[in-house]
């Protein structure tokens, strides 16, 4: 298959006609915005893949890589995390991306994955980007779902040292929360205020970054702003718990981890450390590229997709 096909911006700015988006209730009734996309095949699908994005992401940002797997015969599913995208908000102010803790997200993912395993054909593969990669790994360590493999893309296992180191973020955010600032934005001036360096941190592809801005303009209801101090504290606590060697050693699921040493958002050293403790993990480094590997320029994006394809051929038969 020619990986370079179907990359026109029109494909990235249009929901596929056969992709179904609906709402499903979480265990406590919270509505989660979910998508299902049947495989592009006349016969049985190759298997089922569940994709989860990162903090502030929404389904439409990843139509291009989802389209690649769709054409390869995979049946696809995923949802917007509670509190972002189309899955409601923890706070009334959408300019603040809040989370009281990460356990609620693990619970939501656990329930979605249980239903997915029961209602879709195998093999089953979980894919998570950034915060989604962190939560997928927590699910594997804590709940042990019977999936065949998982792929972690620039997983959020530590904050980048050039930004706010995890130990400092943990301490400062704890202080902020004790001072009553848990629901206050840690930075930024509103949902539409984005730092000038945001594109550089996410992708070198101006066209794909423009696609995200297009979706944000067309559907502002999907947009969430800067994280709250509560989110930062919850993230730091969750990362500290997941980083323990005895926790990572329990994950027996075959893993592919894709990351870049140039990442300005997540800590490459924390990713390397975790890979050493995971029993069945393959770590693939990219010398170039920013945080969003599957939304990067083709020089990075296509090799990343090819590495994923090779891994799927190996472990998901």
From TrEMBL:
Family matches, as InterPro entries: AB_hydrolase_fold (IPR029058), Hydrolase_4 (IPR022742), MAG_DAG_Lipase (IPR051044)
Pfam family, one: Hydrolase_4
Record domain Serine aminopeptidase S33: where: 44-298
Superkingdom as given in the UniProt entry: Bacteria
Name under which the protein is recorded: Lysophospholipase
